[in-house]
C-alpha cells in the first residue's frame, strides 16, 4: 500500500485511480498490505490515501496492517486485519468466518504490543507524537539515501545511483548482482539479500562511508 518492499517504488495517486478503475471492472476484491505506514511520505495519514481512495470509490476492501516497524515493536509482531464490507450483515458474516480461521491457528493473540498501539492511537496527543516520530524516521532514512548516493558518486563510481534516492521506504534495490552481493559479504562483511536489496534503516551516519566504499569496491 505504501513504501513498497522490496522495490521502494509506489504508484502515484493518479496510478492508484487507474488501478481502482481496473479492479472495479474486473470485480476483484482489493487486498492491501500496509506494513510501513509513515515511512513513504513521512506522513502516516497521507500514506493511507490509496486505501481511502478505494473505499471512496465504492470498493469493499481487505487491509492487513503491521505496526511492528513504525511503532518500533518488531519483536511483538503486531498486526491487524480490517475489512470494509457493503452491509452490517456482511460484516457480521466475515467476522464469523475469520473467527473460524483464527481459532485453530492461534486462538488468542498476545495482547501486550496490541495494547501499546491501541493506547497510543486512542490518545490524540500520543497519536500526534507518533506521526511526528514517523516523519523523523522517514527523514533520517531519506537523508541516508542521499548520503549513500553522494558517497558513491564522490568515489568516482561509473554507475548511476540515482535510483537510491528515487526509491522510498525502508528498503532499496541497490542494483548489485548476486556475485557482487556475495563478494561484498565475503570481503567486507556487509550483508544484504541475494537480489541486492538493502535495508536502509540499517544505514547510519556511522557506517554509511564504509558501506559506500564497500559497494564501490565490488562494483568497480
UniProtKB/TrEMBL annotation:
EC numbers on record: 2.6.1.1
Catalytic activity: L-aspartate + 2-oxoglutarate = oxaloacetate + L-glutamate
Keyword Transferase belongs to the record: yes
Cellular component, GO, one term: mitochondrion
The protein's enzyme class: transferase
Cofactor(s) named in the record: pyridoxal 5'-phosphate
GO biological process, alphabetically ordered: amino acid metabolic process
UniProt xrefs under InterPro entries: Aminotransferase_I/II_large, Asp_trans, NHTrfase_class1_PyrdxlP-BS, PyrdxlP-dep_Trfase, PyrdxlP-dep_Trfase_major, PyrdxlP-dep_Trfase_small
Record flagged with keyword Hydrolase: no
Family: Belongs to the class-I pyridoxal-phosphate-dependent aminotransferase family.
Cross-referenced PANTHER family: ASPARTATE AMINOTRANSFERASE (PTHR11879), ASPARTATE AMINOTRANSFERASE, MITOCHONDRIAL (PTHR11879:SF22)
Record protein name field: Aspartate aminotransferase
Organism of origin: Cyclophora tenuis (Marine diatom)
Amino acid at each position: 500500500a505504501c513504501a513498497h518492499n522490496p522495490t521502494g517504488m509506489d504508484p502515484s495517486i493518479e496510478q492508484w485511480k487507474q488501478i481502482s478503475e481496473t479492479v472495479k471492472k474486473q470485480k476483484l476484491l482489493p487486498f492491501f498490505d500496509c506494513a510501513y505506514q509513515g515511512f513513504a511520505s513521512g506522513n502516516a495519514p497521507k500514506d493511507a490515501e490509496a486505501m481511502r481512495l478505494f473505499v471512496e470509490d465504492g470498493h469493499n476492501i481487505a487491509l492487513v496492517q503491521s505496526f511492528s516497524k513504525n511503532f518500533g515493536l518488531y519483536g511483538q509482531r503486531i498486526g491487524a486485519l480490517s475489512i470494509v464490507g457493503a452491509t452490517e450483515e456482511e460484516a457480521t458474516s466475515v467476522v464469523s468466518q475469520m473467527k473460524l480461521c483464527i481459532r485453530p491457528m492461534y486462538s488468542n493473540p498476545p495482547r501486550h504490543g496490541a495494547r501499546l498501539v491501541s493506547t497510543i492511537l486512542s490518545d490524540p496527543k500520543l497519536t500526534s507524537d507518533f506521526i511526528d516520530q514517523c516523519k523523523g524516521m522517514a527523514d533520517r532514512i531519506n537523508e541516508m539515501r542521499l548520503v549513500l548516493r553522494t558517497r558513491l558518486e564522490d568515489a568516482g563510481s561509473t554507475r548511476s545511483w540515482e535510483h537510491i534516492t528515487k526509491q522510498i521506504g525502508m528498503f532499496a534495490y541497490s542494483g548489485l548482482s548476486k556475485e557482487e552481493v556475495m563478494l561484498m559479504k565475503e570481503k567486507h562483511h556487509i550483508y544484504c539479500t541475494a537480489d541486492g536489496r538493502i535495508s536502509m534503516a540499517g544505514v547510519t551516519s556511522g557506517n554509511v562511508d564504509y558501506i559506500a566504499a564497500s559497494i564501490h569496491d565490488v562494483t568497480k
